[in-house]
Design goal:
Blueprint lengths: L1 E4 L16 E6 L10 E7 L4 E4 L9 E4 L1 E6 L2 E6 L4 E3 L7 E4 L4 E3 L4 E6 L5 E6 L2 E2 L7 E4 L3 E9 L2 E4 L3 E6 L4 E3 L3 E4 L5 E7 L6 E7 L2 E2 L7 E4 L3 E9 L5 E3 L3 E5 L7 E4 L3 E3 L4 E5 L6 E6 L2 E2 L7 E4 L3 E8 L12 E6 L7 E3 L4 E3 L4 E5 L6 E6 L2 E2 L7 E4 L3 E8 L12 E6 L7 E4 L2 E4 L4 E6 L2 E6 L3 E4 L30 E3 L16 E5 L4
Parallel strand pairs: 10-17, 19-26, 28-34, 36-42
Antiparallel strand pairs: 1-4, 2-3, 2-6, 5-8, 6-7, 9-11, 11-14, 12-13, 12-15, 15-16, 15-17, 18-20, 20-23, 21-22, 21-24, 24-25, 24-26, 27-29, 29-32, 30-31, 30-33, 33-34, 35-37, 37-40, 38-39, 38-41, 41-42, 43-44, 44-47, 45-46, 45-49, 47-48
Length: about 525
């Protein structure tokens, strides 16, 4: 037999006058007394090791033997092995006992205990094959097999008779679906599937760990939210199996409430804001006349067409509410745009005016605009104006809806030229300014028209302008007309009208039409 030992000090290797150290294994008497210890083996060493020991053949039988190890250099006595050793002079007789039933369900175990006396070593076997690391006096058996134990002492070894352990498989089941959602409270069916192939199985359903009275089939009609499991039991073996849970969520989304931010009677081109109460985590879809409005998924919707508007809320779980109550949006008609005409030409000189006239339509109001801006107080069917710009009128019906603006009328006002100034140079008069001119003599138009200057000849007769009374008629002639040879002018024009001369002269610039 091998006797292992450990050292804790320093031992001599041997030398001059120093003995080499030996570790010696000693056997006590049958009562554990080392007074007359028997050396059963030794090892020359200075460190821990193992001593090969032999029990003397004439050692008396007994059950209280102990073994210790001592050293020689220096001398030291170690403690004994700590347990009694039986010396009987015969191999052990192995046996096995079970501390419980040797037939049970998978997942359970039974403890097997080896017999055969003290001072033994053990090796457990399943169906004749050593079980790794199973060298204790007991073994927890959880698998079906024939178990034996081999016990060994100094005199030999013995294998026990087998003990049969039977493990019954649990009736394994699984749920076909593990997540359920009922949006309107409708019950759902939760069903299990038998994976075991066993017979004689009974069932019990549980809700949140509490047995459901009377629910003993392989399926259950669930109408209460919670976690459902089923326990399957084999009536022949008593083995049970509990499935994982199936979760039922019951959710009923409240019907959303829609509020209109203003009147739902709108004019064409306008809109009204519809707003739904916010439900945390919900999404929304707007409808008009029962048809989805593409992209209308916000809590606010601008309704600009006539119809019945509703909204449906959908929860984070995917449950949809019933549609909200209808919000009826009505588009009111607008009157037909009027037409405006001008009473006279719309291009004139400053100081003149023109009257603009709109179609007279009963039951409407008018608003005139100039260059797109309202004219204060201009709310009649006509407008007298002397200002240039683009004019239009907008009419509004009794329902408050405005028509499109009328046709536009452009009024052009031309500025008057500056008052000319007459200057004289010898016998020639000159007028300032640009454009055409009309000369006057004594307040009467001269027969010379639209000429910037005129003068009498220096070698003239005794006729003077004060005595000249000439009437000349010309109708847009392209060549000059004859005039008394004692007068000459700097410029001729192509057209003349009736003119008369008096005793004074003056000029008027004529550049503004009309």
């Amino acid at each position: 037999m091998d006797v292992p030992y450990d050292v804790t000090g320093v031992f001599n290797e041997g030398g001059f006058l120093i003995l080499e150290n030996d570790f010696i294994a000693q056997l006590s008497d049958a009562n554990g007394d080392f007074t007359n210890a028997v050396d059963i083996g030794s090892e020359t060493a200075t460190g821990s090791g193992t001593i090969s020991a032999f029990i003397p053949a004439n050692t008396p039988f007994g059950t209280g033997y102990r073994i210790r190890v001592i050293s020689t250099s220096p001398e030291f006595i170690g403690t004994d092995n700590g347990f009694d050793i039986e010396i009987s002079g015969a191999p052990p007789v192995a046996s096995v006992s079970a501390n419980g039933a040797t037939e049970f369900c998978s997942g359970d175990a039974v403890t097997l205990t080896a017999g055969g006396g003290n001072g033994l070593t053990y090796q457990w076997q399943a169906d004749g094959v050593d079980i790794a690391a199973a060298t204790n006096a007991t073994y927890d058996a959880s698998a079906a097999a024939d178990y034996t134990v081999v016990v060994t002492n100094a005199c030999g070894a013995d294998a026990s008779d087998p003990i049969t352990v039977t493990v019954n498989a649990a009736p394994e089941h699984e749920l076909l679906q593990t997540s359920f959602l009922s949006c309107d409270g409708t019950p759902v069916t939760i069903e299990a599937e038998d994976l075991s192939g066993q017979t004689g199985i009974t069932y019990q359903w549980y809700l949140d760990g509490i047995a459901l009275n009377g629910e003993t089939s392989i399926s259950v009609l669930a109408f209460v939210a919670g976690s459902y499991t089923i326990e399957a039991t084999n009536g022949n073996t008593g083995c049970s199996f509990i499935t994982g849970p199936a979760t039922l969520v019951l959710e009923q989304v409240a019907i959303p409430q829609v509020t209109a931010q203003g009147s739902t009677d709108i004019c064409a081109g306008a809109s009204v804001t519809l707003e739904v109460d916010i439900v945390p985590g919900a999404t929304y879809q707007w409808y008009m006349d029962g048809t989805i409005i593409a992209g209308a998924t916000d809590t606010i919707h601008l309704a600009d067409a006539a119809g019945a508007y509703t909204v449906v809320a959908t929860s984070a779980n995917g449950c949809a509410s019933a549609p909200s109550a209808d919000v009826i949006v009505t588009v009111l008609p607008a009157p037909t745009a009027p037409n405006i005409i001008a009473s006279d030409t719309t291009t004139f000189c400053a100081g003149a005016s023109v009257q603009l006239l709109a179609d007279v339509i009963a039951g409407v109001t008018y608003q005139w605009t100039l260059d797109g801006s309202d004219i204060a107080g201009a709310t009649g069917t006509d407008l007298l104006t002397s200002d240039g710009g683009t004019y239009a009128v907008v009419i509004t019906g009794a329902n408050g809806c405005a028509a499109q603006p009328s046709n536009a009328v452009l009024v052009t006002v031309n500025a008057l030229p500056a008052v000319p100034v007459i200057t004289a140079s010898f016998d020639t008069l000159f007028a300032s300014g640009n454009g055409s001119f009309q000369w006057y003599l004594g307040g009467t138009r001269s027969w010379v028209r639209r000429i910037a200057s005129w003068s009498p000849r220096s070698a003239a007769t005794t006729w003077s302008p004060l005595r000249m009374r000439t009437v000349v008629r010309a109708h847009r002639r392209s060549t000059p007309i004859s005039a008394p040879d004692h007068w000459s002018w700097a410029h001729w024009v192509s057209a003349f009208t009736r003119t008369r001369t008096k005793d004074a002269s003056r000029s008027r610039a004529m550049s503004c039409p009309g």
